[in-house]
Write a structure and sequence with these properties.
Layout (H helix, E strand, L loop, with lengths): L6 E3 L2 H5 L16 E5 L6 H13 L4 E6 L4 H7 L4 E4 L16 E4 L7 H13 L3 E4 L2 H8 L12 E2 L3 H8 L5 H15 L2 E4 L5 E3 L5 E3 L12 H14 L6 H21 L6 H6 L1 H10 L1
Parallel strand pairs: 1-10, 2-3, 2-5, 3-4, 5-6, 6-7, 7-8
Antiparallel strand pairs: 8-9, 9-10
Length: 286
């Protein structure tokens, strides 16, 4: 305990200290305004899950930027969120990020050429904290020079295959972690490398291994929910990597409650989001 170490395993005692306070006299404006750019034709489910994850994090407001094909879906399934149309079947129209605390891009946006051009314009103009996930990472991986446009301080949340497409294949998890540490420092970004014991890696080469979660979470949509949760925490003015540490822990803890209730085989991402309240209660009452 007295020796300095670049690697730490998160536990509930550490995570409880990161939970943002909610003053009894506060209003929604005190808890941030998050922005989410997500969805395309046939993949609006990812946008819905990310939006619900963001709202479950405690964020005061959320504006979802979606293509017109998904506007009715978002308004019907996530009525708590505001909605802006930024394209027809894919995201193609630029929007300003003024007034937002954090912008997440990626869940279900597809990898079309038009969406790639749109993503490049957004990255070059964004002035707030940025979270990139899913198809945003796949777009970056398609052009080796694209990764250099990612703003310093950005958080990316790849699973192992997305990481390999971005930075190259490795022989095993140990080598992949070493490469992630190197890339986080070189690019001055934060990396949430998803998996069993998800690793939160900082530009300062510090690594936090998460201690919650289970194999029932190895299903589609889980990463979209996580992106939303972390985005909502950043919008509430939590600093990186604290927002990532708390978000990943909550996500895994909700997954553990979902596994107990629905079984690891049957649980889905929507079940995990339903159990976010149980995860928050656990942190508040422990």
């Amino acid at each position: 305990e007295k020796e300095p170490c670049p690697v730490e395993l998160t536990d509930i005692d550490l995570v409880k200290k990161l939970v943002p306070e909610r003053n009894p006299f506060s209003h929604k404006g005190n808890f941030g305004h998050a922005a989410l750019a997500a969805g395309s034709i046939g993949m609006m489910g990812a946008a819905v899950l990310a939006a619900k994850g963001c709202l479950c994090s405690g964020a005061g407001k959320l504006t979802s930027h979606v293509p017109a094909c998904g506007y009715t879906i978002m308004q019907a399934t996530v009525p708590e969120a505001m909605c802006n149309i930024a394209g027809e079947n894919t995201l193609q129209e630029y929007f300003t990020t003024d007034g937002f605390g954090c912008l997440a891009i990626g869940p279900g946006i597809g990898t079309s050429r038009e969406t790639g051009k749109w993503l490049q314009k957004m990255m070059l103009s964004v002035k707030i904290l940025l979270v990139l996930d899913a198809d945003a990472l796949n777009i970056l991986a398609a052009d080796p020079e694209f990764i250099s446009l990612v703003p310093p301080g950005t958080l990316i949340t790849p699973h192992p295959k997305e990481f390999d497409r971005l930075f190259g294949s490795t022989e095993n998890d140990f080598e992949r972690l070493g490469l992630a540490i190197t890339k986080a420092a070189a690019l001055n970004i934060y990396i949430v490398l998803k998996g069993h014991f998800t690793a939160i890696i900082t530009p300062m080469r510090k690594v936090y291994f998460n201690s919650t979660g289970n194999s029932g979470m190895a299903k589609g949509g889980m990463g979209d929910a996580l992106t939303g949760i972390i985005t909502g925490l950043i919008a509430q003015k939590l600093l990186l990597p604290e927002a990532a540490i708390l978000g990943v822990y909550l996500h895994g803890l909700a997954g553990d409650f979902a596994a107990e209730k629905f079984t690891r085989q049957a649980m889905q991402a929507t079940d995990l989001l339903e159990c976010m309240a149980d995860a928050w209660k656990k942190l508040e009452n422990e």
